[in-house]
Amino acid sequence: MTSDKAKDYWNRNLRLVLGCLAVWFAVSFLFGILLVDALNTIQIGGYKLGFWFAQQGSIYTFVALVFFYASKMNKLDREFDVHED
User: Fold this and answer.
1) C or N terminus of the chain, fewer CB within 10 Å?
2) Which residues contact 57 (CB under 8 A, 6 or more apart)?
């Protein structure tokens, strides 16, 4: 892999990681801690939304992000021909 191609691969990987971290931060810290009072005014299934994000929403989001990241990285690896056989 050429130096330019390696830099492009790393930049796209870093952008993906930062995007996933931003989503995780928003769901776990913002929705679960800072905005919990505002979200608690909304109820879904009898539970306050802020409580749900703090207890389960951040976990579900993290698991979904793991699968999302793995899928995107597999595509990126194939695009740059660094995938595992």
Assistant:
1) C
2) 27, 31, 32
Q: What is the pLDDT of residues 25-48, one digit of tens each?
A: 999 889 888 999 999 999 988 889
Contact 58, 50 (CB under 8 A): no
Count other C-beta atoms under 10 Å from residue 28's C-beta: 17
pLDDT value for 2:
86
Indicate if the alpha-carbon torsion angle 63, 69, 72, 77 is positive or negative. Answer: negative
| Alpha helical stretches, state H, the chain | 3-25, 36-39, 49-52, 58-79
DSSP-derived 3-state class of residue 43: strand
Please tell me the predicted confidence (pLDDT) of residue 67: 98
Q: What is the DSSP letter of 32?
A: I
Give the SS3 label for residue 82.
coil
